[in-house]
Sequence to fold (192 residues):
Amino acid sequence: MSKELDIKIRKIIDEAIKLLNENNIDSNNIPEQTGSFEKSTSPLLKYAESSTLHGSKETEPLLRLIREVFDYLPWKYNYEEREDKKDLGSYMGWAELIGPEAPYKSDDFCLGFTLISPYTLYPEHRHPAIELYKVLSGIAEWTLEGATSKRVPGEVILHPSNKIHKMQTYDQALLALYTWSGNDVVTLSEYV
Ligand SMILES: [Fe+2]
Fold:
């Protein structure tokens, strides 16, 4: 399975870069695969279907590829525990394919997928990295520095370095492709 899995995930990276091409993401940023992909035990696996159902014609090819290997993506959540929602990691998280701790190791570029289950707030947070999102599935509310708008699949959202942002889902789960670039993609995001 492993070799076949590696090929499928590599295809996901290629398709993701293709989707972002208009935003000048350089495919030369794809490093060598140095780590392996294993069966995930994340609580997010239960959203495999619901988070990949509400795409657009443009994002559907990538969603189809993700669905096939969803359970083998490195889903995680590593914020400090919040007093107001101790189990938030069961409702949201991300799978990083390229990054400092990802199977495709890079210290200057990240690429992954953020998943937020229905009726969940991803609270205000910030990070030094410049973050570019492309919505793959689900309509949700996105807020950047206090300005909120509803974003649909296919839309691109830019979060400049250290600007506070949050997302709120309603009846649809959100799955979005993200990249981190800029001077510092190693410092983790933190809640504010
Ligand atoms: Fe962010």
Remarks:
- The mean pLDDT is 95.
- The longest helix spans residues 2-20.
- The CA atoms of residues 9 and 69 lie 7 Å apart.
